Amino acid sequence: MTAVFPDLKDTSVFITGGGSGIGAFLTDGFLNQGAKVAFVGRSDATEFCDEMEQKHGARPLFVQCDITDIPALQNAMGQAAQAHGPITTLVNNAANDKRHTTEEVTEDFWDWSQAINLKAYFFACQAVIPGMRAAGGGSIINFTSISYMMGNTGYPAYTTANSGINGMTRSLAREFGPDKIRVNALAPGWVLTQKQKDMWVTEEGLAAHLDRQCLKDPLEPDDIVGGTLFLASKASKMMTGQALVIDGGVVVTG
């Protein structure tokens, strides 16, 4: 733990995809701050919850669901609020960056991609607004990506959703600022999760990407935790409608 945010202790945090990849590190990071964490994911996370309970002495609440099933997602968020109190930090983290070309995209694939990467984000935000308003404020953190900033090829439906997340973030920040609800985006660079290593990382591709970074170390999932905690805490209490980029300096070099 590199920083302590005392105001996060005992707060109610909800993370989508909080049992694997970057999300698992976020769950760990918030538990380390003493927060009460609930998360959803498609795969069973019992073993991960056991690990977190042993490490922190507090067990995260896991509800298994597919975030594209909006009623199931809303129900899971209701369970989290009932168990931990009104959700005052929402982290929309779950996403799917499946590679595809423009010419092979079908209408069904397009709808699936937007459902995971954009639609679920909106309805998760919608679901927490009443509780945050009643609690006197809160922080919503929408994970996007630098992919759309770079104009990357290889996943146009995904980069479209990434860009949409930023537009949504700004609009919600404006709409709910009077309620002291802050809405920010967080754009990681190429974070070397196990999934990325298994499916997309090649020696040549990684070398080319690192060459574009100002900082030459590969990004690890833990590198994203500190920025997320900062956006959740009152340390960033006058920051909203912004996109925090954690990418080792790729987008400044183009």
TrEMBL record:
InterPro entries on file: KR_dom (IPR057326), NAD(P)-bd_dom_sf (IPR036291), SDR_fam (IPR002347)
Keyword Lyase: no
PANTHER family reported for this sequence: OXIDOREDUCTASE, SHORT-CHAIN DEHYDROGENASE/REDUCTASE FAMILY (AFU_ORTHOLOGUE AFUA_5G02870), SHORT-CHAIN DEHYDROGENASE_REDUCTASE FAMILY PROTEIN
Oxidoreductase keyword on record: yes
Keyword terms of this UniProt record: Oxidoreductase
SUPFAM superfamilies registered for this protein in UniProt: NAD(P)-binding Rossmann-fold domains
Organism lineage string: Bacteria, Pseudomonadati, Pseudomonadota, Alphaproteobacteria, Rhodobacterales
Family membership: Belongs to the short-chain dehydrogenases/reductases (SDR) family.
Protein's UniProt name: SDR family oxidoreductase
